[in-house]
Amino acid sequence: MADRGCLLEAAPLPPEVRESLAELELELSEGDITQKGYEKKRAKLLARYIPLLQGVDPCLQAENRLSGPSLTTAALKPQKSRPTNSRDERFRSDVHTEAVQAALAKYKERKMPMPSKRRSVLVHSSVDTYTPPDVHSAPPDVTTGIVHHSHYERPQVASVRGVPRGYSGSVLETADGVPVSSRVSSKIQQLLNTLKRPKRPPLKEFFVDDFEELLEVQQPDPNQPKPEGSQMVVLKGEPLAVGTPWPPSLLAALQRWGTTQPKAPCLTALDTTGKPVYTLTYGKLWSRSLKLAYTLLNKLTSKSEPLLTPGDRVALVFPNSDPVMFMVAFYGCLLAELVPVPIEVPLTRKDAGSQQVGFLLGSCGVALALTTDACQKGLPKAQTGEVATFKGWPPLAWLVIDGKHLAKPPKDWHPLAQDIRAGTAYIEYKTSKEGSTVGITVSHASLLAQCRALTQACGYSEAETLTNVLDFKRDAGLWHGVLTSVMNRMHVVSIPYALMKVNPLSWIQKVCSYKAQAALVKSRDMHWSLLAQRGQRDISLSSLRMLIVADGANPWSISSCDAFLNVFQSRGLRPEAICPCACSPEGLTVAIRRPPDLGGPPPRKAVLSMNGLSYGVIRVDTEEKLSVLTVQDVGQVMPGASVCVVKIEGTPYLCKTDEVGEICVNSSATGTAYYGLLGITKNVFETVPVTAGGTPVSERPFTRTGLLGFIGPDNLIFVVGKLDGLMVVGMRRHNADDVVATALAVEPMKFVYRGRIAVFSVTVLHDDRIVLVAEQRPDASEEDSFQWMSRVLQAIDSIHQVGVYCLALVPANTLPKAPLGGIHVSETKQRFLEGTLHPCNVLMCPHTCVTNLPKPRQKQPEVGPASMVVGNLVAGKRIAQASGRELAHLEDSDQARKFLFLADVLQWRAHTTPDHALFLLLNAKGTVTSTATCVQLHKRAERVAAALIEKGRLDAGDHVALVYPPGVDLIAAFYGCLYCGCVPVTVRPPHPQNLGTTLPTVKMIVEVSKSACVLTTQAITRLLKSKEAAAAVDIRTWPTILDTDDIPKKKATSIFRPPSPDVLAYLDFSVSTTGILAGVKMSHSATSALCRSIKLQCELYPSRQIAICLDPYCGLGFALWCLCSVYSGHQSVLVPPLELESNVSLWLSAVSQYKARVTFCSYSVMEMCTKGLGSQTGALRMKGVNLSCVRTCMVVAEERPRIALTQSFSKLFKDLGLPARAVSTTFGCRVNVAICLQPNRLGKLAEQGTAGPDPTTVYVDMRALRHDRVRLVERGSPHSLPLMESGKILPGVKVIIAHTETKGPLGDSHLGEIWVSSPHNATGYYTVYGEEALHADHFSARLSFGDTQTVWARTGYLGFLRRTELTDASGERHDALYVVGSLDETLELRGMRYHPIDIETSVIRAHRSIAECAVFTWTNLLVVVVELDGLEQDALDLVALVTNVVLEEHYLVVGVVVIVDPGVIPINSRGEKQRMHLRDGFLADQLDPIYVAYNM
């Protein structure tokens, strides 16, 4: 930077060029000019000096290109040290800066993990830099073959978690042997270290009710300071002078000056160069106001009625640069007895807060807006050329009031309004903390009283000159510069904001040239002029008797006043001329400091303890120099007013003398009401302060001003904050402005853009949480911003003893602006809460801030199983068990014996009904690609069996891997294995485009299942032996591979018949959602029992047709695809789910075409249809798709039913005739693939109306579930979670709910593990890979109490049984089984059990851009991964929203938020999220995240 400075010194620039450059720089920073325009103008300015620079240093030009604004600032500093970047707003007191530096020095730089960002987000740029995820970075995909075609493709993963190849042993691994990228793990380690540091003092213990998780109740600190003073007394101001000849009303004064002193100047308007454009005289003001009043009353009609009647409200829309027209409009309205409502000029259709202003105009019944010709031309227009309707605004007529548009009144016309009247004079708008805009009505009486009080307090006299820098449309700018000035025939010089931006000294120059006696400014104007004053010799402020500082009540005004006096005392400024005042929209001017000649006491300062203030107590601080607030007095009470200080909340009791409260004023010069809002008007404008004994202090009501403060020595008023900026965090009060001042004291020049910082609080978990948003300079680096954020946190922690919940940085110039350039805080808060703030950096600190979480649950010593049973008996609760219909009643056992072996059934069918078609396979176009009748299937099976015996040389009992795409070949190969006594293992084929991740799983299943041979197709055989395959696995170790495409038409010599039904029939290998691969053994008797149960439950006969859209490799999908048709003889229409990727409507079209009454699908298929066909139902109807044939559509799943998805599917396809009650769910798991199926009313039973009842839904309390309890609540009650019953229990199946730890039986509606006993349970694990600890007791568990004889299988799922009021076919009461979730998946946090899906559901609801979400834990930190379906620059909005929603709904603090591209969260073929895979991918740093935020 320094060397760049001297480059320009070599070629000194003339002062006017430097000035122009500085102005240009300012325009760019304010957003008044584009970067391109800036560069063009700048090049033009420097054109003749550039040759001097050329050849000096080529880097200069490069630099210029890179960081537009920062260069000029740096380069021009030596000559003109006005660092433009710090110009705005807030000025640090040196005391405060020292305090902050000292506080920071106390901290060693703590290491916090820095968030990691993708490069494209660093640039924080447009969509062009959107980086698609790197294909290699997805976690290994295995058993499905889905390639990443499109960006949104979700990798379906069902792979086994193990160590990827190529990792050396030195890599840090997780407990399960997953390599952890050192980058991720070191950050998590840093985070853990940071979190280990002590927090705020722990809060008191409290009693936890058994059901409720109580939030920690904050206990008051016993050592907190308490007010000790006596009760204050009401402070009365001096009386309004009686002898003075006041005019009877403001309009009378105007008429008097307009007629007797028509040439006297009233108002001078300046242009942006500081030249006077126009001076309005009193004569002109009077005549033009009359013309306007006449026009308004007589020339405006609608439907021949006058448009306006006295008392109507009229909007005044005038730019800040046109005080003359505003003044004419204001007085014109008063003369016409109309009520002016001044508002800002709307610049775009969506200005910050514009909608709220519209709401105000609507509620005031405004139908007409007055404006100027120039302003009207600049307003956004609709196509018709009319002024556009702004969002939320009522329809308005616009009237341009330039002279040529007004009618001259006849000589004899006089306005009525001359005397003082009772009604409303004008309405001033105010934006509240929440962002709502209200109108404050000021009556004619108040208006006059305010003018008189200001005249007396400020000693205004006729023909004085006042320089006004403030907004003349409202507040002090209006009261002094438009109203009181006219009363006293003063001359106001109005300085527009645009001129101040260009030349901050303009107001001082005008004071000097007009010899002004008074000036009206804000602290920022003093600060700006300080930065610009050097080198200005000829300035004198000796004419000023009052320099009124309108925001004298702000914490940073004192340093501006002191600094300003230091510099300008030598130029004639008298110390007593500086007069801070306090005002509020409700109380108007509350207090003002007066010079000694007007009877003011000497000014005072107070150095107060920040800690005392946070408890509302005034303590003058002596020792602790760090956390103090220095405030100056704002002078005395206004003439004719009384002031008292009352408690902020509850009954308005008077405060003690050393207590901070809300200042209340009783005076005839305050606002009178909030327009149209009676309730809050009464609270604010009609407060009756009472003494401690409850007696009112006065007959007349007081007005609450919204200012917080106290009354100090000499009866001076001190203000320490505003009610709007008050944040109550954990019982202590903090003021937003004070927090801003602290943040600004941390390297403001280097980092914060133009001092633009907003602080507000949001309510999360029943307490205010502080949010700080700052604009960072365009040239700030990632490291800078992160370092600044951590230092700000430390400074605020040290000085205010409060934690910041969220710190967000946004790019320069992106926060919503208030009318005169400040930050629109309520709009900023709104954007933060809606997720539209678009920060470029975020740091959340929920771990440090949130101290009111419920206490972690302590596990009680368990009640024994016996006591449980006794307890249930005493309580009259039955033991939770249920069963399907008895098999014995349903079917003659002779047939069951005949159908014991599926191979026999197929032979029998081939013999008795050879030409009955069993299978139809469809392709993506919906055409049948292959069929199989009973005899065809039998013959193909025989050929396979022959090949296995002859070519494969296999013996009975050998295992054979079947690696086929979904189709009839797979089914034929399965029966071929049974025919020769081999044990088939179905394996999903590898994906040709994704061999690297899918082939290792195939290889692993083949090895783990000890397969002696691989049966497959020709194409897959080539693939398994290809060069690409060799890169992924060792292809030399494949067992024999037999290609069944062209095996000879040979018959097996004999068909194998198993010696007993308990012999192994097939192995079912699957990967669980936790990434564990296991094979279960299915015997012949279990296989036939499974088919029999499904046949009975779904009433399947040879005449039925069912449509199946499932993967045929494991579980119920395999059983429906390969086993059931052969057993029951019905025809199955097979739709491979993979085909839906090229034709989403394939499955539903097939259901319609074949009039299938029963159809099965998976959740992923249902989701594809819901998302892909949402807008196409009309088109499908045109094509003739009709789903009214469907009686039942069952979703095959191993999880809690997804109610939202099934409901939206039913709703969407109701248009195509899908019956409302058709959709239901099934439940199965490893130990038993079909526990529940919910067939709807079918067949004979349907005609009798006695089939099973519809699935019921109950609502349970989510908080009770975390404690393993079920508590039923009403729909819609807070924390309620809907659970749908999982289907009807199959015939022959018995279910019981057992305690997860004691293994004792539980009562009805108690949460426990679902245990199942049935003839079709699997007989055990063949092998388990990935977790050797899966025990045999999964298949042979016994209860520890009660019925200890029955052998049960443990499903590993939590659920409960509930007896309903419904009856089933046999007249018994129906028992509904509710599945809550897998035990393996649950997260143990804070001693409670959370189901990931519940947290994920909350997160997905948090923002529309969250497409999918998955959660897992790592070292006790909760990690939330969200997929962003939107622009990358919106990614950081999600961090706070995700953290908030999980805190609010689950009382959990999120440790890490990871934002990734759509499709990164892996799912398996059933549509279940593979959270463990995701965890491994995250720890191995393979997700290529857009952003990772580590919450402190």
Commentary on this structure:
With 1496 residues, this protein is an alpha/beta fold. It is 31% helix and 22% strand. The strands form 16 sheets. The protein has a nine-stranded mixed β-sheet with strand order 4-3-14-13-15-16-17-18-21, sandwiched between helices. A seven-stranded mixed β-sheet has the order 35-34-43-42-44-45-46, sandwiched between helices. The two termini are 35 Å apart. 52% of the residues are buried. Residues 1-11, 51-92, 123-153, 161-178, 200-211 and 1242-1251 have low confidence and may be disordered.
Short description:
This protein has 47 helices and 61 strands.
Q: Supply the number of helical segments.
A: 47
The helix-and-strand class reads alpha/beta
Give the helix level as a range of percent.
25-40%
Q: Which strand order does the major sheet show?
A: 4-3-14-13-15-16-17-18-21
What's the average pLDDT? 83
How much is the radius of gyration in Å?
40 Å
Main beta-sheet annotation: 9 strands, mixed
Beta-strand residue percentage: 15-25%
Uncertain regions spanning at least 5 consecutive residues: 1-11, 51-92, 123-153, 161-178, 200-211, 1242-1251
- Taken from the alpha-carbon principal axes, the silhouette is elongated
How would you name the oligomeric state of the polypeptide chains in this document? single chain
Number of strands: 61
N- to C-terminal separation? 35 Å
Q: Layout of helices and strands, plus pairs?
A:
Blueprint: H1 2-10, H2 15-30, H3 35-46, H4 50-53, H5 58-66, H6 68-76, H7 94-106, E1 116-117, H8 119-123, H9 182-196, E2 235-236, H10 250-260, E3 265-270, E4 276-281, H11 282-298, E5 301-302, E6 305-306, E7 313-317, H12 323-335, E8 339-343, H13 354-363, E9 368-371, H14 373-378, E10 397-400, E11 424-431, E12 437-443, H15 444-458, E13 465-468, H16 475-487, E14 491-494, H17 497-502, H18 506-514, E15 518-521, H19 523-532, E16 546-549, H20 557-568, E17 578-584, E18 588-592, E19 605-609, H21 610-614, E20 628-632, E21 636-637, E22 642-646, E23 661-666, E24 673-674, H22 678-685, E25 703-711, E26 717-722, E27 726-729, E28 732-735, H23 736-744, H24 748-751, E29 752-763, E30 768-776, H25 782-800, E31 804-811, H26 825-834, E32 841-844, H27 846-849, H28 865-874, E33 881-883, H29 887-890, H30 893-898, H31 902-912, E34 917-922, E35 928-933, H32 934-950, E36 959-963, H33 968-979, E37 983-987, H34 995-1008, E38 1011-1016, H35 1018-1024, H36 1027-1032, E39 1040-1043, E40 1064-1071, E41 1077-1083, H37 1084-1098, E42 1105-1109, H38 1115-1128, ...
Parallel strand pairs: 3-14, 7-8, 7-9, 9-10, 13-14, 13-15, 15-16, 16-17, 30-31, 34-43, 36-37, 36-38, 38-39, 42-43, 42-44, 44-45, 45-46, 59-60
Antiparallel strand pairs: 1-61, 2-22, 3-4, 5-6, 11-12, 12-24, 17-18, 18-21, 19-20, 22-23, 23-25, 25-26, 27-28, 29-30, 31-32, 33-51, 34-35, 40-41, 41-53, 47-50, 48-49, 51-52, 52-54, 54-55, 56-57, 58-59, 60-61
